[in-house]
Amino acid sequence: MKSKLAKQLFSLIFCLFITLHAANAENSTQEKRASLTFGVLPIISTHKLIKRFSPLSDFLSECLGVEIILETAPNYKKFMQRSNSEKRYDILFTAPHFYYLAEQQAGYKVVVRIAAPELVSIIAVNKESSINSVRELKNRTLSTTDPLALNTALTRELLFLSGLNPDKDLTLITTPTHNASLLSAYKNITDAASLMLPPYKRANKEIRSNMRIIAKTKGVPHMPISVAPWLSQKEIKNITKALLGLDSTIAGKKILKTMRWPGITKATSAEYADLDWALKYLKLD
Amino acid sequence: MIEVIMLSVLVFNNLHTISTTHADRLNDTATSILNQFSSAAGNFMAEVDYAGLEEFSSDLLKHTEISYLIVYGHKNNSVIELGKNVPKTKPVQDIKPSDVDDGIFDVSKKIIVGGRLQGEVALGFSLAVMDSAITHARNQSILIASTEVILTIITTVIIGLYLTKNLQLLSESAVKVASGDFDTNIPIKYKDEVGLAAQAFNDMVYAVKKNTRQLQESQAQIQLLMDSTAEAIYGIDANGLCIFANPACIRLLGYNSEDELLNESINQLISNQKRTNTENSQDLLSYTKLNHPGHSDQETLKRKDGSQFSVEYWTHPISRDTEILGSVITFIDITERKETEKELLLYREHLEQLVEERSKDLITRTSQLEKAYDSLNQTKDELQQHRDNLQFMVDSKTFELKKATDEALLAKEAAEQANQAKSEFLANISHELRTPLHAILSFSNFGSKQSKELENQKIPTYFTNINTSGNRLLALINDLLDISKLEAGRMEMHFQQQALLPIIEHCQSELSSMLHEKNIQLNLSSEDVDDNAEFDKTRIQQVVTNIIGNSIKFSPENSSIEVSVESTNLEMDDKSNVPALRISIQDQGPGIPEEELASIFNEFIQSSKTKTGAGGTGLGLSISYRIVQAHHGKIWAENAKDKGALFQFIIPRKIPCSSL
Asked: What is the predicted pLDDT for the residue at A235?
């Protein structure tokens, strides 16, 4: 009788020990991560980027109860290196094709994306230009953005699908911004310009009235926000919940307005799964 | 000594200023570099581009004063450490260079990008450069100050010797001038301040010499003047003691020399005889004491021998600033003049007496003349008034006579007009009476003589003609009777409160055959007017029939006559306004000649248009006029603006009580 009671008591103590140990293990993991690093692709100047993303960073910090360190990089290449090789960022805001690579190489998983129509690039020519189709760009000059930018990848893919070799059949001129690319064609420095559709729509009305779109690329899902694989499920859940909750509070809506995002929606890796075509344009050497 | 103290103060002050300036400059430099660096480093920090930041920072280390540079990250961990003297622990910031205790001025600043803290930068500035500069400045200042002190001492000794020598020469020359040697002259070697002083001294000596000579000449001239003048001149001091006297004075006072008078009081010269004129009773000494000029011709002086003589004197005070020194008295002997004045006084009194007597006589005569003149004026006024009265009477009589003549002429013209109108009327009325009578007689005679031969159907025509003419004759006679009654005031009026429009409509009905005959349209407009008034139905009907009948007579065929009734006010004889009705009748005929508008309502007056063929006795309008008058109303005619005649009459809605 006594031995049975002792056995039962031992079992109870053992269960309690296991439970407490597991709880401690969980707590110790969280204690290690007193801060999370939020990496943001340098899509605009650093000063503007920090100013624009700070409210979102503070919002996440408040929701998650940890310090959020907001970081960017001097350029796309360095950013990709930090995210994919150095695995520096816990939370990642990057371009769709960069995300595809980050998932492949570092295991980042998309949780949400900007709730906006697919990202599309266009090729525009001066209104008086004789060019009417992509094929007519052969032996011409085409202004583009950063070689690693999504716009450039989409444009190259369009040229390729139209039977043109982007590196041989025409000359691609790199410009620092989408607007610079458009102005090059507007001022007849290049024969045509490629840029994303949203910046084209925001361009000066007078410039647009003197330009003509000759082609549109295929679309890709909008900018994703992904999380590092080393985060716990609870952390991932909390981050997802916080980001999706932006729409439901006045403070959150104000942040969305600051970010110029129409909203945040849940996203899955499957949406970005067919971006393998872009890998051939991400020349990191 | 003072120079040394002042130079020491100046050197210490300069050293302090240099030290402060260097400290301020270092502080400003540090602040400026920190601001620029933290601003530029922000992007590197946000981009976590420490390599880029280090490259950028290494340029900063070229600054000689910067001892070290440390950039701290988010967690105060140093991400960049550059420089020779990087502290092992995070340095404590110095507020200003003077707080430095270790030779390094430690400063730091947060790195903020887009409002977000990215880290901190700490810089150390070595004070060695600043201290070296201050030491160099101090050594230079002391060297300059020492040199200046030595040079000052040497210069002071040289200048002192030079000045002492020249001052001694100036002093000796001044002593000579004081002793009357005006030919003294100081030689001038240089044109410096000493030379200028010597030149000024020489000029002064020359001026003194010149002035002394002029003074001597002036004194000689004054003495000559004193000696030669006939007027006595006598000088006294403030106590009245004689200080000088000229020969004329000595002579007049009977003394032998000036010495006899000197220091003698002037009171001894003044006679005790009472002055005759009290207005000039101021004595000689009092003028001196009052320090103002004086003049009198009422003084008597005593000679040495005691005899007295009258004088006229003038005193002029002598004073320096406010101090009275005395006065100069000039006087002349006026004994003879006084005697003459006495005689003149007697003669004047005699003359005044004579003038007074003559004046009295003149006043009496003037008074008599004034009385005579007043009387003459009164008579003249009376005559003028009388003449004015006569003139007024003549003018009044003349005016009355003229007025009577004018009235007589007017009456004569009126009578002649009336007579002519009556003659015309009689001629006309005779014709009017004779025409129907002639028709009656002709047709009755014709019927009675040829009744058997006549065709039966013509007999009614003859009787109709006789009836028509009889009616016409009857109407004429009625008119004549009416006018005679109205003239005589025997027409009886039966005033009753009743509506006017039915009366007009009745008249329209009566005159319908005439209207139909000439195809004339009669339009009656009243526009909801209250047509009630107090009037004699028969007589007003007569007025309306007369006027509309006239209008039909003068209207061309196929025309129209407008009749309107409206409310209005009527001004009564007592100037009061009473409610009334206005009846207007306008035709499209030829209108009335302007010269006949005023007389058209007169008896025996027919319009010239009537004479041309419209027919009538001219009594209708006259009767209408008198009927309207009997109603206390008003009737008049005028030519319409467009075409035709416009007749209007107004009758009060209520007949005044006095007429009932």
From this structure: 94
- The whole-angstrom distance between A55's CA and the closest CA on chain B is 10
Q: pLDDT tens for residues A163-174?
A: 999 999 999 999
CB pair distance less than 8 Å for A51 and B74: no
| Chain-chain contact of B47 with A47 (C-beta, under 8 angstroms) | no
Phi, psi of B555 (to 5 degrees): -80, 145
pLDDT exceeds cutoff 80 at B609 = no
Query: Which is nearest to A107 in space by CA: A230, A232, A223?
Result: A230
User: How far apart are the C-alpha atoms of B55 and B42, rounded to whole Å?
Assistant: 14
Cβ <8 Å between B52 and A74: yes
For residue A42, list chain B residues with Cβ-Cβ distance below 8 A: 47
Q: H or E element: which one contains B628?
A: helix B619-630
The full DSSP string for B374-434 is: HHHHHHHHHHHHHHHHHHHHHHHHHHHHHHHHHHHHHHHHHHHHHHHHHHHHHHHHHHHHH
Q: Name the residue among A46, A57, A73 with its Cβ closest to that of B113.
A: A46
pLDDT at residue B613 is higher than 50: no
- The CA distance from A263 to A254, in Å, is 11
Closest CA of chain A from B118, distance in Å: 9
Chain A residues touching B47 at Cβ < 8 A: 42, 46, 71-74, 78
What mean pLDDT comes out for the span B186-214?
A: 85
* Edge-to-edge strand list for the sheet holding A35-40: A67-71, A35-40, A91-93, A224-227, A109-114, A264-266
Cβ density class B162-175: b for 16+ within 10 Å, e for less: eeeebeeeeeebee
Using CA atoms, how far residue A222 sits from A82, A114, A158, in Å, is: 22, 6, 18
Percentage of chain A with pLDDT > 90? 81
Residue B479 contacts residue B486 (beta carbons within 8 Å): no
For residue range A28-43, what is the model confidence (pLDDT) as tens digits?
A: 444 557 899 999 999 9
Q: How many CA atoms lie within 13 A of B538 on its CB side?
A: 5
Q: Which amino acid is at B504?
A: I
What digits encode the pLDDT tens for the residues B41-71? 888 888 888 888 888 888 888 888 888 999 9
Question: Which residue in B633, B619, B648 sits closest to B544, CA to CA?
Answer: B648
Please report the DSSP string for A14-39 in residue order: HHHHHHHHHHHHHHHHHHH-SEEEEE
Which residue intervals of B450-529 are DSSP H helices?
Answer: 459-488, 501-510, 512-518
Q: B212 and B192 in contact (C-beta within 8 Å)?
A: no
For residue A228, give how far its alpha carbon lies from the nearest alpha carbon of chain B (Å): 19
Ranges of H-type helices in A35-95: 46-64, 76-80
Task: Note whether A258 contacts B: Cβ–Cβ < 8 A.
Answer: no
| B426: confidence class by pLDDT, cuts 50, 70, 90 | confident
* The two structure tokens encoding residue A57: 């960073």
Give me chain B's average pLDDT, please: 84
The predicted complex's ipTM stands at 0.74
Q: Give the confidence band of B616 by pLDDT, cuts at 50, 70, 90.
A: low
Cα atoms found within 13 Å of the Cα of residue A89, Cβ hemisphere only? 31
pLDDT at B559 over 60: yes
How far away is chain A from the Cα of B42, in angstroms, using its nearest Cα?
8
CB pairs under 8 A between A and B: 50
**Which tokens hold the place of A252?**
């959150």
Say whether pLDDT at A23 is over 50. no
Which residue from B114, B117, B119 is spatially nearest to B90, judged by alpha carbons?
B119
Using CA atoms, how far apart are residues B271 and B300, in angstroms rounded to an integer?
A: 6
Give the separation between CA B360 and CA B160, rounded to whole angstroms: 101
